[in-house]
Structure to design on (252 residues):
């Protein structure tokens, strides 16, 4: 039976929210002359909103004194700011500013070699997700990935299940054949609502989130010289690594 491993991007492939998206948003705001500079604390709260454009709109709704549109169309001003932010973000990725999280490249390679389909499902912009994935897993394994489902490809973003329902449909898999890797409560809720088993690897901004339906919660996926720690769920790890055998055990 073919299995599928579907990974979120931000906080899973790399700690992109802290080291990438937040940095890129603030650089874009400064470059475009917008009077906004988000702190890490502010951004952590905004992460409850799925999607970068939606995040910015939520902030503007709470700060009517910020005139992003300057008399023009607000949606267009948000799109322009988000486009420039995405360009800066890709530049950061290509400069190597966002190293992969422990165990991601290893697990993707193992899953592909074991005959699993591997895909990414994210609310971030398609170009940004592809850049991170290519950087983290390398060109050879990137070429073997079955799909990247990202951005505005679905109408409702996480915690809605739409992106995961789309992914498993395009991959031709049933929910019983899929394991998701997420890092946030919103992402884990999306996976749960899609009926999918999910492993959570907590990241900088999600250590206080709750994951009541997760099959397994770990600090990271683990490397031979950097063991993973099980924070919740069954200890199915061999050699302190989240590997293909562990994923198979969770599906059983």
């Amino acid at each position: 039976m073919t299995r599928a491993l579907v990974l979120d991007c931000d906080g899973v492939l790399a700690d992109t929210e802290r080291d990438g998206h937040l940095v890129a948003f603030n650089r874009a705001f400064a470059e475009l002359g917008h009077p906004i500079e988000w702190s890490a604390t502010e951004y952590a709260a905004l992460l409850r909103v799925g999607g970068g454009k939606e995040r910015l709109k939520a902030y503007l709704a709470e700060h009517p004194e910020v005139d992003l549109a300057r008399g023009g169309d607000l949606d267009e001003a948000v799109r322009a700011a988000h486009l420039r932010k995405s360009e800066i973000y890709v530049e950061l990725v290509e400069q190597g500013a966002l190293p992969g999280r422990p165990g991601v490249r290893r697990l993707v390679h193992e899953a592909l070699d074991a005959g699993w389909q591997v895909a990414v499902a994210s609310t971030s912009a398609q170009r940004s997700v592809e850049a991170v994935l290519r950087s983290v897993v390398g060109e050879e394994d990137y070429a073997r990935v079955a799909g990247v489902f990202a951005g505005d490809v679905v109408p409702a973003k996480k915690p809605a299940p739409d992106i995961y329902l789309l992914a498993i449909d395009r991959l031709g898999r049933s929910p019983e054949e899929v394991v998701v890797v997420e890092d946030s409560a919103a992402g884990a809720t999306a996976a749960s609502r899609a009926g999918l088993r999910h492993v959570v690897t907590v990241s900088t901004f999600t250590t206080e989130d709750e994951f009541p339906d997760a099959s397994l919660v770990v600090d990271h996926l683990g490397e031979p010289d950097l063991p993973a720690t099980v924070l919740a769920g069954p200890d199915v790890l061999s050699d302190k690594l989240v590997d293909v055998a562990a994923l198979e055990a969770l599906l059983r």
